[in-house]
Structure formats: C-alpha cells, structure tokens
Amino acid sequence: MRILLAEDEPALANWLVQALLQSGFQVDWINDGRLVASSLKATRYDALVLDLGLPGRDGHDVLDGLRDGGHDLPVLILTARDSLIERVHTLRAGADDFLAKPFELAELEVRLLALIRRARGSGHARFACGPLVYEPVGQQLLLNHQPLKLRPREHALLRALVQHSGEPMSKRDLMERIFADEAEVQPEAVEVIVHRLRKHLEGSGVQITTLRGLGYVLEAATTPARTSVPDSSGL
C-alpha cells in the first residue's frame, strides 16, 4: 500500500516513513501543502496522511481542493489541534478520519488499513484474489491457505498486485513500490520478477496477466498467463 505523507515536522515524518515501511507500507513524504496536488497527479496512492499545519497551503485548503475536484482518495488528518470543533469541521469538510498528536503508531496503522479497505469496498482485514490472500497484520501471502515462500522483491510485487486485484498496474507503479530506494533500475527487472511469480502461481487458480500498454493485473485464472521473459539471477 502506497501512502502520501504531508507533514512539515522532519523528525516525525522520518520516524513515520521508517516505521510504516517496516509494517508493509510504502511512504512518500512531502513537507509543503502546495506539493500535494502534483504528487497525486504523478503517483497513484492508496491514502493521504495530511497535517493541518502545513506551510505553503494548509491542510484545510488542501482537503477542500481535493474534495471540490472530486478526488475520493482516503484522507487521514494528523494534527495537534485536538478539539471537538476541529474534528467536526474537518470531517464535514471531507476527511475520512482524524488522529490527534501525539498518537500510537499501531493506531495509525489500523486506521490506515481500515480506510483503505473501506475505500475498496471490503470490510475484511485482508486482500484476496481467488485462492491468493494477503494478510496485512502478519504481512503474509497465503496461497490455498498455505504460506507462499517468496524472495523479498517477489513478495513486494505480488503484494502490490493483490492489493489492487483486478486493476492494472504499470511497470512504473510496480518499480516505485519495489525499488523505491534504488536508482537506475530498468523496467526489465519487473518483467523478470513477474516471470518468477508466474511459476509460483502456475496451476493455482490465480494468474498475472499482461495488458498491453497498461501493465499487469492479478486475476482469477481462466486462461494461461501471457507474456513472460527468461529468468535472471540476482534480483
């Protein structure tokens, strides 16, 4: 799950990025409200964590702009302004949830998962496509109720696909989730990992399908998976 964090306190932001990364989230951090709109245009996010006291453009203005523009991205407000009036005003303006500082990381994680599940029309604490299930709490992929043993990058790519089951994801989207901290990674690296995953999923009832010009989509298997490349070591 990819999160956009709009927060102007560097210490808090750095802590959140690292902590959420360990919990299976991918987090991009910006520290100015004027950067929110351009960030959302450039990258597909599952949720926005928004501080109200941002420089450049405060959180209220950012939220109003998103909702006036018809953007339905789940928004969780982080703020030190913990009052009933502030909560009511923010939720009425279109925020999906409100968390006052200081807060516990575990509570933030649970609330983010709930927002994302609700946005996807699911009330279950997991993501699934046919016999393949991802359980966020244990960060575990299960295939036919059995743990799926994968390399870290294979796990990251398949997790992203099952979290967006039925929706095509471009190579760029997948590269940003798998190789976020690495420079000069070629798109062919994604093809290699997809090829390996197709071997793991062969005959399982779920497959990764290539949609020309769009990317890859995870779906219940009806026909053999298409488009693969030779395997390569070192990824």
UniProtKB/TrEMBL annotation:
PROSITE patterns: OMPR_PHOB, RESPONSE_REGULATORY. SMART domains: REC (SM00448), Trans_reg_C (SM00862). InterPro entries: CheY-like_superfamily, OmpR/PhoB-type_DNA-bd, Sig_transdc_resp-reg_receiver, WalR-like, WH-like_DNA-bd_sf. GO terms for molecular function: phosphorelay response regulator activity; transcription cis-regulatory region binding. The keyword Chloroplast does not apply. Residues 2-116 form the Response regulatory domain. The modification 4-aspartylphosphate is found at D51. Keywords: DNA-binding, Phosphoprotein, Transcription, Transcription regulation, Two-component regulatory system. This is DNA-binding response regulator. It comes from Simplicispira suum.
